[in-house]
Amino acid sequence: MHAWPASEVPALPGEGPDLRIHDTATDGRVTLNPGSVARLYVCGITPYDATHMGHAATFTAFDLVQRVWLDTQRQVVYVQNVTDIDDPLLQRAVATGEDWTALAERETALFREDMTALRMLPPRHFIGAVESIPRIVPAVERLRELGAAYEVDGDIYFSVEADAHFGEVSGYDQEMMRLLSAERGGDPDRPGKKNPLDPMLWTAARAGEPSWDGGSLGRGRPGWHIECVAIALEYLGMGFEIQGGGSDLVFPHHEMGASHARTLTDEAPFAQSYVHAGMVAYQGEKMSKSKGNLVLVSALRRAGTDPAAIRLALLAHHYRADWEWTDDVLEEAVRRLGRWRAAVSRPDGPSADGLLAEIRAALADDLDAPAALAAFDRWAALQQRAGGQDPGAPGVASRAADALLGVAL
3-state class of 11 per DSSP? Predict the structure, then answer.
């Protein structure tokens, strides 16, 4: 599966500081100091509908991670999956009468268009679940050989009791885990399971549903968590720097993935840090495909909204915060974009060296994009009010906005 084209990242003088970021597993900040190569895995879309602001906010956060690392002169190996086979996708296809593969391909293509418009740097590896089945099957077979998997009516489950460290990513108690499992694709009440929390590794073939040859597992399709584990281990190995996604992935997805990987490899950690973006609400509820309360990136683009303004609207909120999308949020971003473009359009201005340092420091401090935007606001206001004599300042400011914030001025 191919990703989307990369926008050029302008060169900046000097280099930025190392990233310090909040780790969900320890509930504290960690300073990430990779070697020459930094590794990032972000859980991607299930392509049964278009990209909404919740998706866009999450991917913007991890786009900033890439930009901060690139600014430290490191290479970045970024991996993102596409869950192009799963229950929600099949259910939507049945409801609309559309072939599930056509639905997945169309929505994945639209996702690529949205990411390109928003100047998201693409992953080096953009991998679908279907194409990963040859990696997933041996992983499930290995878990069964280790005694960490078992069968219920042909379906293969992972036994969470096989991992002594299960629960360390989320820190949730059993009651909360069971509640979230039921809400987020699990089946805690299914008879025959050893533990209500045990997740599906391989779903046996169902009549009328697609299935694949699973070797000793029989025909079927992969579970959600093992998909990401197989892809991450293939392209990143154990101990990569960041596993990222929305905060709704803390449990069960990232918790289960860590358990799968530790059990498969007898190593730890799966990821050095678990980083989660907050939820975006609309009209008083979390924005989600299941509820249908969506503000779509593609719809805003079709209405003529500048993608740079959409990106500024997202950056105005700290990535870990829960917030609500409103018309006012977008209108303020449009005004901000106009002020910034006016500021960099002048032939000279006040020195932007301090601005560059402020943006770098803000982003290295747990991706504090609102602080970075405030720094640019101050420089733009000074430019408008007093100007300056540095002919290179507008260019430095413009390149900093593009390279570090992904905002093309």
Answer: coil
List, for residues 192-206, the tens digit of each pLDDT value.
999 999 999 999 999
d(CA 113, CA 101): 18
Residues 219-247: pLDDT tens digits?
Answer: 999 999 999 999 999 999 999 999 999 99
Q: How far apart are CA 18 and CA 360, in angstroms?
A: 10
Whether 226 and 369 share a structural domain: no
Give the global pTM. 0.96
pLDDT value, residue 118: 98
58 sits in which H/E element: helix 53-71
CATH number for 370: 1.20.120.640
Containing 299, the helix (H) or strand (E) segment is helix 297-302
Both 130 and 166 in a single domain? yes
Burial class (CB in 10 A: 0-12, 13-18, 19+), 126: buried
Q: In whole angstroms, what is the distance from residue 344 CA to residue 383 CA?
A: 9
What range defines the domain where residue 370 resides? Answer: 305-405
Predicted pLDDT at 147: 98
Quote the CA–CA distance of 1 and 109 in Å, as a whole number: 11
Interatomic CA distance for residues 274 and 247, integer angstroms? 10
Q: How many domains does the chain have?
A: 2
The residue count for the chain? 409
- Pull the structure tokens for residue 122: 């693409």
When pLDDT is averaged across residues 18-45 and rounded to a whole number, the result is: 96
Q: Compute the average pLDDT of residues 321-330.
A: 96
